[in-house]
Structure formats: C-alpha cells, structure tokens
Amino acid sequence: MTWSDPARPDRMTIEEVRFLIRFELGQAPASLYVDARSKDRTKRDRALEALTMRIASRFAHLEMLRSGRPFGNHG
C-alpha cells in the first residue's frame, strides 16, 4: 500500500481513502450500526449522519496534518 502519490503529493491515494474509512468505521460504536439498520427512519438517518460525520472529521484532521495548520482555535 502506498501512502502518497508521487505525482500528486497533495492528494490521497484510493488505498489511503479506503483504509481511513474502514479504520473509522471500525472505531464506531456498535450501536451506530444497529441504528443504521433500523426500520425507524429517524433513528437510521441519525446513525448514518453520525457515521458520515466521523469519517468527515477524520479526513479534516488528516488535511490539517498534511497542511501544517494548527489544531483547535489557535488562530
């Protein structure tokens, strides 16, 4: 697995994207998976939104690391 694309070092490879999504989903509480399969649409939508936000947060964090920007409200 490559962790950077030599032609575009500012972009993630598909392997990186897949790894990070699988990692973040693996860290999610089991209750989110149960709710995501619920027949109750509100419960299902909230669980899917929470899973999506976990993944988006992971990518935002990675982008901060790559760009050298500080974390939090340091600005």
Q: Would you summarize the structure shown here?
A:
With 75 residues, this protein is mainly alpha-helical. Helices cover 64% and strands 0% of the residues.
What does the model show?
The protein is mainly alpha-helical and 75 residues long. It has a domain at 30-68. The protein has three helices and no strands. The chain has helices at residues 14-27, 30-36, 41-67. The longest helix has 27 residues, at 41-67. It is elongated, with a radius of gyration of 15 Å. The N and C termini lie far apart (35 Å). The mean pLDDT is 79.
Evaluate the radius of gyration. Answer: 15 Å
- Mean of all residue-level pLDDT scores: 79
Task: State the end-to-end CA separation.
Answer: 35 Å
Measured by DSSP, the beta-strand proportion falls in under 5%
Structural class: mainly alpha
Which range best describes the helical content: under 10%, 10-25%, 25-40%, 40-55%, 55-70% or over 70%? 55-70%
Order of helices and strands: HHH
Number of helices in the DSSP assignment: 3
State the main characteristics.
single chain, 75 residues, mainly alpha, 3 helices
Structural topology:
Blueprint: H1 14-27, H2 30-36, H3 41-67
Helix pairs in contact: 1-3, 2-3
